[in-house]
Amino acid sequence: MSGVLAGFFIVWSLIGVGWVVGRTGVLGAHGRYVLNRTTFFVASPALVLVGLLGSDVKAVLSLPMLVAGVSGLVTGALLVGGIALLTRRRGADLVITAVSGSVVNGANMGFPIALYVLGDISHALPVILFQQAIYTPLYLFVLHRVTSEDSQGAAGVLRSIVANPTIIAAAVGLLLVLAGVHVPGVMLDPVQSLADMAIPAMLLAYGLSLHGSRPLAKDDGYRGLIAVASSAKLVLMPVIALGVGLALGMRGASLYEVVVMAALPTAQNVYVAAARYRAAENLARDTVLITTIGTVLVLLAISAVLEV
């Protein structure tokens, strides 16, 4: 439990610095934009690459990835079914609620929590690989279909996914490890330096995004859906991960690790997608904020229950 508190102290300290930087305007009007693009196109792919090169790929692609996949897909499906059955919400509102409640922040929060709470960034890799390779293409395709009448748009979505630098880094890392290629240290050192920049830059960028926001605005009509999505993300998904892990025979530290990853807050990528398609942007943004705050209490509870 002390590891959770220590980890979140570091995480929220860096987020706080980002908020102060945003408030003071030190980085100018485009600071968050530059930081986000730097982490997305440069630092995060480097972090995924070095993480894979230094990890046991068989472990990454085995039970933890299966738990991440089942818990994410089942949570999303339950949200779609429940909201469609009990409300009149359809289209983008339905999709964004389901995705907000089932897509974890494997990069911006997953890497820091994996490093500071679990002690190794490789614990975040199964979640990231599942989401980048399977879940992200799926929900982007569905979101495109419900927001656009352009029948050729799916090809554009597919091209953007294939061109995602994190997916490319993951594919390159997996190929190198599976082929048994040893990368010389002199070649890996520059990549490692870029990777070291990723986590602080992610957290600073998120802190910058919090400055000036107005969460839970009453007039947008999303409060109920935000509550549903946040509850699913913080409670339902970790419970499903716990059940799946137990069913697969996982115990102790390995079970704790997959449940912690399932309890991570909603990914900022969901807000990026919502903004891209102009679909329920406030719903996605506020769910990210609520779950990022609530994750602290959830992880403390998980640590107490699993006695890690």
TrEMBL record:
Domain of life: Bacteria
Location in or out of the cell: Cell membrane
Membrane topology: Multi-pass membrane protein
Keyword vocabulary terms for this entry: Cell membrane, Membrane, Transmembrane, Transmembrane helix, Transport
Transmembrane portions of the chain: 6-22, 34-53, 65-87, 94-118, 124-144, 156-181, 193-212, 224-248, 254-275, 287-306
GO biological process entries: transmembrane transport
Pfam families recorded: Mem_trans
GO cellular component: plasma membrane
PANTHER family found in the cross-reference section: AUXIN EFFLUX CARRIER FAMILY PROTEIN, SLR1864 PROTEIN
Family, as annotated: Belongs to the auxin efflux carrier (TC 2.A.69) family.
Designated name of the protein: AEC family transporter
Lineage, top ranks: Bacteria, Bacillati, Actinomycetota, Actinomycetes, Micrococcales
